Amino acid sequence: MAANAPRRLLPRLIRQAVLAREQSEGAGAKVRRSIGTPQLRNLTPFLMLDHFSVSPGAGFPDHPHRGQETITYLLQGGMEHEDFAGHRGRLNPGDLQFMTAGRGIVHAEMPVQNEDGSPNVGLQLWVDLPKELKGCEPRYRDLKAEEVPVVKADEGRVTVKVISGVSQGVESVKDLAYTPVWLLDIEIQPGGKIVQEVPEGWTTFAYTLEGEVVLGADEESGGERRVVPQYHNVVFQDAGQAVYASVDAGAEKAARFVLVAGTPLDQPVVQYGPFVLTSKEEVYKAFMDYQSHSNGFERANGWQSEIGKSMMH
């Protein structure tokens, strides 16, 4: 083999593909949920993936969380955020928010009013926290679109936004979440292809936002290729070093998907609504703490978000 020949990376094979069907969630929001459904329940460390579309007048008014991290990635429009500790912010297209709920937070997430009446669209991923971190103080990390490195591959036919992790030798901003997660936004033009390394042993999935992407390597590389249409969550097997993705040269348009990988956690998941803990006793305690404004929920006592009031008729 020539000294400069690229090493062949063992492809990740596809374990399953799930169509994310649209459902109603929150107050008037439309959501395509893939992770956190009967077809795709346990995918440690991932608890839920929602592809949301929220029109003005809808939204997610004041609600609590405990025991998980949420990653919100805005694709279109705008979302405002406010919590009981006085944090307020706004996400614009391409912006992200990493929120660690830890021992307790109460917040509201509401859409902005777009002049053309268009909906506000994005992804929200719930990530489990290791048991020893579930009682940590809540925190936020906002990541603006301009902070995300963008790298081109395959003679410009592939564009990768390196939100978290590494692609083509380019690294993301560090220390975004407690549970290590890679998150890449990949767009492939017709005829383009990419071999994206992922950490070995990490749980890895792809969610298709637009177009049709061919996932998997050719048989020569030990793989199997599969055409995946829009709104599908494709879970890869744990073995393998890289995800192979391409778009047929004759395709009518580009394909866009997010590729996500995270460290599996060896712990029980007991979830009831916004509380994610490791036993029923802890979930029951979360309810009691929330209702009695104690053990992390003290600031919820008498608090109402300004942005949520529009829905409190």
UniProtKB/TrEMBL annotation:
Q: Which CDD domains match?
A: cupin_pirin_C, cupin_pirin_N
Q: Which InterPro entries match?
A: Pirin, Pirin_C_dom, Pirin_N_dom, RmlC-like_jellyroll, RmlC_Cupin_sf
Domain Pirin N-terminal spans what residues? 29-127
Q: What SUPFAM superfamilies does the database record attribute to this sequence?
A: RmlC-like cupins (SSF51182)
List, for all copies, the residue spans of the domain called Pirin C-terminal: 184-295
Family designation: Belongs to the pirin family.
Task: Name the chain's protein.
Answer: Pirin
